[in-house]
Automatic annotation (TrEMBL):
Signal peptide: none annotated. It comes from Colletotrichum spaethianum. GO terms for molecular function: monooxygenase activity. Its cofactor is FAD. The lineage of its organism: Eukaryota, Fungi, Dikarya, Ascomycota, Pezizomycotina. Belongs to the paxM FAD-dependent monooxygenase family. Keywords: Monooxygenase, Oxidoreductase. It comes from the Eukaryota. This is FAD-dependent monooxygenase fsr3. SUPFAM superfamilies: FAD/NAD(P)-binding domain (SSF51905).
Amino acid sequence: MFYQQCRRLNIPVTFGVTIVDFEESASQRTGTAIAADGLRFTADIIIAADGLGTKSHKLVAGEVIRAIPTGFAICRTFYRLDPEKHAALCKKLTELTRPDCRCFSGEGFHCISVLGNDSVFVGITIPDDGTAQESWAESITNEEFIRLLPMTDSFDPLALEIIRNIPENSTTKWQLCWRDPQPKWTSPEGRIIQLGDSAHAFIPSSMSGATTALEDGLSLAECLRLAGKEHAHLATKVHELMRLRRVSILQRVGFSNRREMHQKGGFEEIVKNETDGGSMALGKWVWTHNAEKYATENFAKARQCMETSTEFQHTNIPKGFKWEDWSMKQELEKEQRGISTPDLKLNGDWSIY
């Protein structure tokens, strides 16, 4: 979809290029992405949306910031059903009246499957046994996948059947890595800006990593439109100011959710103790947010606060939220101590209505 839109707008797309460095020029008012073969891409603004392994930290943060393991690994697969090879499974799934999401969890793990009439997705998060790599190149067999599932005897038979029918070598296993919330996403001159995972690493249990990256795109585009070419470098800074705190809270949600899912009793325990705005709830402040509209309505105010060094009042976070810095180390210590109370979601208004 993204590629087709670029083609429609006559935006050239170059494939097979590895970006290894970034630089900017205050005098030329440009940013540059430098490829491994020496090719240089120069523009008013360079958006480093190149994921967890981005090389933009050296310029943005002043140092190389390596991702660190979270202590967990994840296995994921998606495949389309073959009516001949998967006849029995196809028959069961064609009976679904709508897509079906099934969640299983217990002490130290959670598994999610999404079923359609002709396709399935399965993912499991488990403690890393030391064999997972920070790479999407490692695959596992269906038998290995089954062995990773705790409490197999009590699993949904359909979920097990789905796993047994996965095409060979199509399940990817990788090490979940993370960077602590960053204090900035932009280079000193504002000509390079990080977006998505390069700016803010999410663990899957946040349930909003991809959505947050899309919000980034909407917000940044609107800020650039409002600032214009002459002040494009200010647009990146204003975008950063408006979104840093919202994104940091959403990152932390991943750890809060994982503690809830991985408690003894799993989802059954969550449902039993469920309250509005409590365990696993994504408050309305998350899913009712319109990032483009927020940028439109708050750009001038945020820019003024930035230029006058006054505090910007964030309204894209839970109402009444009291800001506090945090780190992955602190969150992992809570997990190790067995703290399952959703303390984050008691800070401000997390109601869903």
